[in-house]
From TrEMBL:
It comes from Parvibium lacunae. The lineage of its organism: Bacteria, Pseudomonadati, Pseudomonadota, Betaproteobacteria, Burkholderiales. Gene3D superfamilies: 3.40.50.2300. Residues 2-131 form the Response regulatory domain. Keywords: Phosphoprotein. This is Response regulator.
Amino acid sequence: MDILLVEDNPSDAELTLLALRRAAQDLSIVHVEDGVAAKTYLEHAIIKLRQGEMQALPKLMLLDLKLPKLDGLELLRLIKANPDLAYVPVIIFTSSQEERDLVLAYQLGANSYTVKPVNFDDLNTILGRIVQYWLHFNVRPLHLDSYLASSGI
């Protein structure tokens, strides 16, 4: 799976998914609407990984901060504290421009913090660059998932 999108706003989710598909039509994207659903999805992905499904974990997460049930910062804290998930790049993709959110996100291990643009053309550009960098230019070990599954790290 390429991208896990955690976004509760239906309009933002629809536009983000459209822009991601424009960036690369062959992307495998899973969308969940709240922090608890994301946590549950990732817990199931870890089980699948340990059963040998090498592409179970996302290669990238786009995480909104203002989420129901479990907010984005708390979810980020849980992800980065879990050795099975800590290496998954998490891009905070939010409308919040609050300095407190920005600082806390980086303290908790966010790999990037991006403010959602209001213009769809800008959204296309930003998400295209995010996909290009994190899924094409960023180098990960080829067999990191299988290494984690077999080593118990």
